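INTERNAL AUDIT FORM
Audit reference: QA-55
Scope: verify that the stored structure record matches its stored sequence.
Auditor: D.O.
Record contents follow.
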Amino acid sequence: YCFRAIECTAEAGGQICVIHPWNNWSPEENAQMYHSMLPFAKACGIKIATENMWNWDPKTDQALPAACSDEQSFLANLQAVDDESFVACLDIGHAEMRGLHTTAEKMILALGDKLQALHLHDNDRHYDSHRLPFTMDIDFEAVVRALKKIGYTGDLTLEADRFLQTYNADTVAQGVEEMAKCANRIRDMF
């Protein structure tokens, strides 16, 4: 499925295809997987981005570490692949989940120029809520300050799919308008 995702990204005119690491694999194990895809991605003119993931502990009701879930793990996964066509996609909401002991701001600053894609959504800093930015508890002013500090020039992708689920077929256009306002607000912060 990953090769098809790379192919579809190229066909759609994209430049980066986000492919999740396996949560419980070591950086070296994930690197083997990514190395098997990179020649095809390069032939398609596509970069592959790995994303910060999480596991869940129902006993403590919080996120547990997984591949790329904190700065050290993310950097270790990037270094294990060590290829200019392998970059980072930071999921802002994942970075702010209780139990992972990091923040989006810390991760942005640690990733620096390897950060070339973002998944933007908000949460209560506990659950992976995928709500529209500025509607819950993540400090997007701190996020944007950190992005400015590293000179971020990549895409900003709203990943607020649960927000749109609150609309029906007759009102979904209103939801899309709200998303556009949010995207413009973030753009204006830059």
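Auditor finding: record pair retrieved intact. The beta strands are 16-18, 47-51, 55-57, 62-64, 86-91, 115-120, 155-158.
Action required: none
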